[in-house]
Amino acid sequence: MIYENAVTFVHRVLRDVIVPGSVVIDATIGNGWDTALMARLVGAEGMVYGFDIQPIALEVTKTRLTNVAAQVRLMLTGHEEMLQMVEKEHQGKVKAVTFNLGYLPGGDRDITTQVETTKRAIEQARRLLAPDGVITIVCYRHAEGQRELDSVRAQLSEWSQEFNTCTETIFLNQAGNPPVVFVVIAKV
Predict the structure, then answer these.
(1) Which pTM was predicted?
(2) CB 37, CB 11: distance < 8 Å
(3) Fewest C-beta in 10 Å: which of 114, 122, 137, 174?
(4) Which residues form the domain of 11?
């Protein structure tokens, strides 16, 4: 397997986990690439919930979903609201939750995900996850991103290995400050 970057790595994880009919969450839809992949993977019987605080993110994502059969609910709200927004019948049955933290690529770099809301969202994702589900988190290393990276690492380090396997992947030979990917696998 070839992983060119954090996104291709996460997409491989999602392809390995999501099956037709799955319920999944894109916690930070951004430009919609993860949402579109997830929608194709869950198919017509599946459900994708997507969250973002910027209207432009929802609009761009809608264009990526043209001709995709999945049920997709895009919500203009922060990811820290996912527990309230995911239907009760889907809670505890979510196959995958993906976070791509930071700012909207091509957007206002002053609008970023934040440590406190991200921390709450990750806890909610854990509560929504199916017993064999996965959480992926991509953290970038701009100023707020580094604070999020440190927070996510600390948060996941405290989770019991009896119930979760948490891994961290760093792309050591990439130029600049490459992102870090965390993958959480809920144990059955």
Answers:
(1) 0.94
(2) yes
(3) 174
(4) 6-186
